[in-house]
Amino acid sequence: MLIATQNDEEGLAGTLAALVSAAVEGVVREVIVCDAGSDDGTELVADHAGCVFLANARWVDGVQLARSAWLLFLEPGARLLPDWIEPVVTHVVSRGGAATFTRAEEARLTFLQRLRARRPLEEGLLMPKADFVSSNCDAEAFRGKGGLRRLGARIVPSSPQN
């Protein structure tokens, strides 16, 4: 799992807290935090949670370090709801390709919100590491290409200020 941060101490803590059950089940084995120069407690939060913290790093730096054949990109502050593990495992086992999460009901967008520009990773991105490497782009650009499957697993995206 990869999370890009910059002064996201609170958001990172919330995202990591939602992953505890997946870590216990062995679904999440490593979390790499690619930080763009935080001057708050982001590094401390990552360290206390057992994450790998890469200072002044980009997505590609974290991807190169990742040991898993599958990558999960999340924004700090995003929360995967408890039912996410089974759909993700099923998708990975079936070699389903790149996919995003489904917005939780409480995080649905209004018509006007859907018309405005959205953040590329606000609904996360699950993809084979080989696809990322062969695409020669970053996670946001890959997500922006569209045509991705939507998982039944639900996410509450981070708020824009996170």
Give a quick summary of the entry.
It is found in: Cell membrane. 34% of the residues lie in helices and 22% in strands.
Structure in words:
This protein is 34% helix and 22% strand. It contains 8 helices and 8 strands, in the order βααβαβαββαβαβααβ. It has a 5-stranded mixed beta sheet with strand order 3-2-1-4-7, sandwiched between helices. Strands 5-8-6 form a 3-stranded mixed beta sheet. The mean pLDDT is 86.
List the topology elements.
Layout: E1 2-5, H1 9-17, H2 20-24, E2 32-35, H3 42-48, E3 52-54, H4 59-65, E4 70-74, E5 79-80, H5 85-93, E6 99-103, H6 111-115, E7 125-128, H7 129-135, H8 139-144, E8 149-156
Parallel strand pairs: 1-2, 1-4, 2-3, 6-8
Antiparallel strand pairs: 4-7, 5-8
Helix pairs in contact: 1-3
Count of structural domains: 1
- Biggest sheet overview: 5 strands, mixed
Q: Would you report the number of β strands?
A: 8
| The CATH homologous superfamily | Spore Coat Polysaccharide Biosynthesis Protein SpsA, Chain A
Mean pLDDT across the residues is 86
Keywords: Cell membrane, Glycosyltransferase, Membrane, Transferase
GO molecular function: transferase activity
Organism: Aquamicrobium zhengzhouense
Protein name: Glycosyl transferase family 2
